[in-house]
Design a protein that fits this description.
Blueprint lengths: L2 H21 L5 E6 L7 H13 L9 E6 L7 H10 L4 E5 L1 H9 L5 E6 L18 E5 L2 H15 L5 E5 L7 H15 L2 E5 L1
Parallel strand pairs: 1-2, 1-3, 3-4, 4-5, 6-7
Helix pairs in contact: 3-4, 5-6
Length: 196
C-alpha cells in the first residue's frame, strides 16, 4: 500500500464517525411553557408524558423537554418564551395565556396549545377549522358555556339571589368571562358577586 493511499484510508476512518453522527437525527426538544407551577400541574405533566410515550417518545431517552414556569406571574411569560427560543426547541407546548406569549415570540416554531377558552377571539388562530400560521391545539370553549352554566345553576338552586364568580384577573380572557357572566346574571335577575 502506498503512503498516499494509507493517509486517505486513515483520514476516512477518522472522519467517518463524525459524518455518521452528523447524519443522525438529533434528539428533539420540546419547550414546555406554563403560567403556573410544577406542583399543581403534576397531573397534566403525567398525561403529557404518557401521550408522548404512546407515540414512541420517552423523556430522557429520545426526547428532551425544557420546562419554563411563570409561577403565576404572567408578565414573565414573554421572557420565558424567549428563553425557550434561545434553547432552539423544536416545538412549544403551552396552555392558557402561555400560548399567546409563545405565539408573540415566534412565527416559525410550531406551538401546540391546550386550555385556551377562545383561541380565535384571543388572537391565537384565524379559525378553529383552519388555524393557520404555526399555532394549533384544542379549545374547551369555556367562554361560550358561561351563560348556560349560570342558567343551569339558577334552575338547580332557584332561591339563590347572589352568585359568586371566581376568576383570575390576570388571565387574558377574564374580562370577557366576567362580562358574559354579568350579562347572563342580569338576564336571570341574579345579583353577581365577583371574586378575583
Amino acid at each position: 500500500m502506498k503512503r498516499r493511499e494509507l493517509m486517505l484510508l486513515l483520514a476516512g476512518a477518522l472522519t467517518a464517525p463524525r459524518t455518521l453522527r452528523a447524519q443522525q437525527r438529533a434528539t428533539p426538544v420540546i419547550g414546555w411553557l406554563n403560567s403556573g407551577s410544577p406542583g399543581p400541574s403534576g397531573p397534566l405533566l403525567t398525561a403529557f408524558r404518557q401521550g408522548l410515550s404512546e407515540t414512541g417518545y420517552v423523556e430522557g431517552q429520545n426526547v428532551a423537554i425544557e420546562y419554563r414556569w411563570a409561577e403565576g406571574s404572567y408578565d414573565r411569560l414573554p421572557a420565558l418564551a424567549a428563553d425557550l427560543l434561545g434553547r432552539n426547541v423544536d416545538l412549544i407546548a403551552a396552555s392558557g395565556p402561555s400560548a399567546l406569549a409563545a405565539k408573540n415570540a415566534t412565527s416559525t416554531i410550531p406551538i401546540v396549545f391546550t386550555g385556551v377558552s377562545d383561541p380565535v377571539g384571543g388572537g391565537l388562530v384565524a379559525s378553529l377549522a383552519r388555524p393557520g400560521s404555526n399555532v394549533t391545539g384544542f379549545s374547551v370553549h369555556n367562554l361560550e358555556l358561561t351563560p348556560k352554566r349560570l342558567e343551569l345553576l339558577t334552575e338547580l338552586v332557584p332561591q339563590a339571589k347572589v352568585i359568586a364568580l371566581l376568576g383570575n384577573p390576570n388571565n387574558s380572557y377574564a374580562e370577557r368571562f366576567i362580562g358574559d357572566a354579568q350579562e347572563a346574571a342580569r338576564a336571570k335577575g341574579v345579583q353577581r358577586q365577583l371574586c378575583t
